[in-house]
Amino acid sequence: MAESGRGVNAPRPPLESLPEARVSRRRRLPSVVWIVPLLAAVVAGYLVYERIQEFGPKITIRFQDGSGIRTGQTPIKYRGVPIGEVTAVELSPDQKHVLVRARLERSAASVAREGSAFWIVRPEVGIGSVTGLGTVISGPEIQVLPGSGAAKSEFVGMDRAPVAYEGKGLRIVLRAVNPESLRRNSPVYYRGVEVGVVHDVALGTDAAVTEIHVLVRERYANLVRADSVFWNVSGARVSAGIFKGIDIRVESLRALIAGGIAFATPQRPAAPAKDGAVFSLHAGPRGEWLHWAPRIALPAKDEPERPA
What we know:
Layout: H1 2-8, H2 32-54, E1 55-63, E2 75-78, E3 81-91, E4 98-105, E5 117-121, E6 124-126, E7 129-131, H3 135-138, E8 141-145, E9 154-156, E10 169-176, E11 187-190, E12 193-203, E13 210-217, E14 229-232, E15 237-241, E16 245-249, H4 253-258, E17 261-264, E18 278-282
């Protein structure tokens, strides 16, 4: 019993010698609630960065009228492909023009150069022709014909497409006192085949005559010679005689509706006409003109030309 008593009353070790207890805390992983928006922010930041990398130069185009042009909606196109977008539309400080500010795609940076032409394409419905039909639903668009000069950021917009946009060919001017129903896009014929188009009709510098600017397509440019003659085929030609009755001649249905021009070249043609040559536009043909049929070589074409 004595030994048992000694064991009970044995001295305890001091507290300082006891090991210190450690509290372990479980590490908590980030909540799924925070992971989703974090990933979304990373993706959004990457997309913004990618978009910024696609940005090209900023340009300003001055137009007389900005009807239908919308910020963030009106595209700038070249050959039907969007290469930029309108970022702002505002009046010029003198309130006489409309300033259209736009940003081009990085791949189209070379468009911002001296000599580039910009114009607005809107739907136009005329007698015998419809242009800009694709913009009826989507709204107006700005088209461009790139230049090749030095870099530039400010441009003066055109009222319509430049002649160069219509394609390659011979550009001539016809002068007439009365152009009758001739207008832009009226056809030009040679022996009943459409070979060109009227690009513009305007008063001459002296306002005494009207100047009709014509583009003869490149394939048919050799048909126009220095001694070629041109006449108006708008409407129908009516002639009557005692023995032959009434004779009505129409160049084509399109010419009857929208106006048109025909030309002929003598049997022994002169040298080819030069770009910018000026001719007179007659009210109608003389008898012998309709019988001229010189042999003039033309470039080969895969598909035959269809008569108008």
